[in-house]
Model the fold of this input.
Amino acid sequence: MERPFVVCHMLASLDGEIDGAFFGAPQAAPALRVYGELRGYYGCQATVYGTTTMLGGYADGRVTALPKGDGAAPLEDYADPEGRKAGNFIVSVDPKGELAFSSPIIAKKGRAPAHVIEAVTTQAAPEYLAYLRKAGVSCLVAGDERLSCALLLEKLQSAFGINRLMVAGGGVMNWSFLQEGLIDELSLVVAPVADGGTTSVSIFEQAGFLPPCGPAGFRLKEAQALEGDALWLRYKPAPTP
Done:
C-alpha cells in the first residue's frame, strides 16, 4: 500500500503521562520548548489528532444542530479546492462527525496555519458533511463502524499529496495507528518531572471499541540528552516475530 511516512511525536512525564499538571512545572519548560522545535525536524505536512485532543484546543466544541432535509450531502470524500493548496494540514479524527469549526484554517501560535481535514466513518450524518462543506472543511470517509487508519493514510496521500505525517495523540489515536502497523518511528521527549499520574493518560491507550491486540515492541534508534535534564528518545517498531 502506498502511504505516508508516519511518526508518533509525543511529550511525556517521567511517570508516562501525556497531559496534566506537569506541563506547568518549571522543570518541564525546556522539554516543552524542544518538543515544539522538534516538530519541524520531521518535515511533516500534516498532524493527526483524535477527537479528545481536538476538543482540547483545536475544534470549536461539538455541533449542536444540523440542517435537515435539503441540507444533506453525499457520504463521500470532499477535498476543498482552496484547502488542498494549503500544504499544511490538521487531520481531525472524528468518526461520528461531531466537531464544530468556525474556520477551515487553524492557526496556533508558533505554527503555520493548517487546513482542517475531518476524518469520519459512515456513521457521520449526511447533514454533517454538508455542514463541513459549507464551512470549507475537507472530509475523508475512512471506515464503517470504526476508523480505518490504513485507508485514511491512503486517501491523505492520494487526495492531498501528503507524504509525511505526524500522529500526536491522544493515546487511543496513537494506539489505533500502532496496532495497524502504521507507525514508522516513535519520537518521545521525556520531561524530568512526575505528577503522580493525575490524569492516567498514557502515550498509547487500548480502547474498548478497538480489536484486542497484544503488546507492541520497539527498538531504540537514538537517545539524546537535552537541556534541562530532558531526554529525546527515538524508537522504531520491532519486527513481528
